[in-house]
Amino acid sequence: MKKDPQKRIEELRKLINEHDYNYYVLAQPTISDYEYDLLVNELIQLEKENPHLITPDSPTQRVGSDLTNTFNPVQHKIPMLSLSNTYSEEEMFEFDRRVKDGLPKGEKIEYVCELKIDGVSVSLIYKNGLLVTAATRGDGFTGEEITNNVKTIKSVPLVLRKITSSKNLRLEDIEVRGEIYMEIEAFKKINEERQLSGEKTFANPRNLTAGTIKLLDPQLVAKRPLKIFLYYLYSETDELNTHYENLQLLTELGFPVNQNYRLCKNIDEVMDFCKEWEQKRETLPYEIDGVVVKVNSLKQQRILGNIAKSPRWAVAFKFKARQAKTLLKKIVWQVGRTGTLTPVAELEPVFLAGSTISRATLHNIDEIKRKDIREGDIVIIEKGGDVIPKVVEVDFSQRPKDSQEVKLPTKCPVCGSKLFKPEDEVAIYCENNLCPAQIKGRIEHFASRTAMDIAGLGEALVNLFVDMGYLKDYADIYDLKNYRDELIKIERLGEKSVDNLLNSIEKSKERPFEKVLFALGIRYVGAGVAKKLADHFKSIDALMNASKEEIESVYEIGPSISDSIKRFFSDNNNIKLIERLKKAGLKFKVDEIKIKSDKLKGKSFVLTGTLSSMSREEAKEKIISLGGHVLSAVSKNTNFVVVGENPGSKLEKAQKLGIPLLTEEEFLKLIE
After folding, report:
1. Number of folded domains in the chain?
2. 429 forms bridges with which residues in the sheet?
3. Which of 2, 105, 116, 265 is catalytic?
4. Is 390 an active-site residue?
5. pTM of the model
């Protein structure tokens, strides 16, 4: 007998929420990822068949489709204050003295110590047990709403768990606060992917986290592996007593809480905790920069109050950067996957922050000159952000008399090609796409989901095929079909896997020109730039023959991009690769839209906001099919601006220029 859909949906939601709690909060999963995915897929299908049963707290509603061009201001009922920093044991004892002076004499004082996560603060508001608002810290008094983005973090409960440890607490209307962060390995992987696509890398996990939570599209946020730890609980209706108990209640409510916290009876125990974690911090998968120390009693916190923008009852003990002295034996130049040369110091091995360091980054030639670093120097190194070893200064008193300044290399240390250094950059590049140091990375980028989308051709298989000689460049991918019989004999592959890969390679030939252009790996030509160039030039031949000025006439395309494009097409090896890809059947021109009539002939349109009846691409095709033109930016030459939901700055500019505006309904009537 078939189950009632509503009952099954409720059952699935309960199961999924329970498994989310086990996985993200307790770190004790009870089912496999495959089994979990089956439950989620079943729920998605049932909700698709019964859309009237979809509720905002369903696990399927974590990623919304709405785009917002602004983040609404949110007033914090209780200010989100910043903490005062301390850097020494003496300053911590001074903090303890101030706390004692601010409380009745002889009153017992306990402290709670927590790790200071290097992330981005957030406030979450729950009403009747449901998440209703998430906001950034902002200036401490007013933040910005980021609810849809925070919902994409699977460890954030959309609905609170019931408190079972106390019959006196309901905790349904609460505010919780925490720190959104990204683990170090996830951060490194994202930066590697951005390097492959020629995009600028992020400085550190915190910067990437801060940028991610302010993205306008929750679906993009969901693709980034954000995590969260909660550390604060406030209820207007329930009486809470201590911070230590609140941390336990947060876990019971379903929130991930960093379990490396400790209740301390005095400031000596606090310092023991701080010293312990200053030694152990490198064992963590995420970045911390200190310890947060709080008075445990909430009543005492209220008595102590705040001063300016900081509470008197809490302080941050900041860790010192760990340093060591050693000999810089040699400076070598490494070639990255996108051709960027990075100077690396080869060191006399030295133990630092839990590991033996034998190499350290020197960043670039300007940094070397600024610090006057030379081979043979005794240097001081530290772990930048406790992750990447770097040289911070030179002990000039021990410099050898015959030391010489470091010179910029003129040839690639791997392939011997002439190097290129842009005038406005400190970096230098090897632009030979056939350079062995770059081949694997370029092939991976070419096959990636956002480029040619060749399923199955990931890092492991690319490395294997390059090492075995089947791939020497990304054009070789389309010759793999000639080696089918040999490939199926490779261990762990087999006939089915190889056929699936070859089918995926064949299917990739259907990818549009903009994706092919992005896949070529031209420096600075990311997915967005490739789309603009494809829309404007329509074909690879037109782009290859365009002058620097013509390229820069495209909206938002500047000199760095145009210079990079001209250099790419001036390399004969790159031209040969493109010719091979053309012969393989890839699309090197935009599929022409058939003109059905000249109804909109001579008329130019700009689209802004989200249309409910069609995508922007569909709207663009309809306009072109009727003889019109679609522009990327508003100017005095624009005839109409089509305004969808949540329009951007284009609407404001159109209003200033007095350009006619069309609602979606008016636009649909026009193109009928």
Report:
1. 6
2. 340, 420
3. 116
4. no
5. 0.53
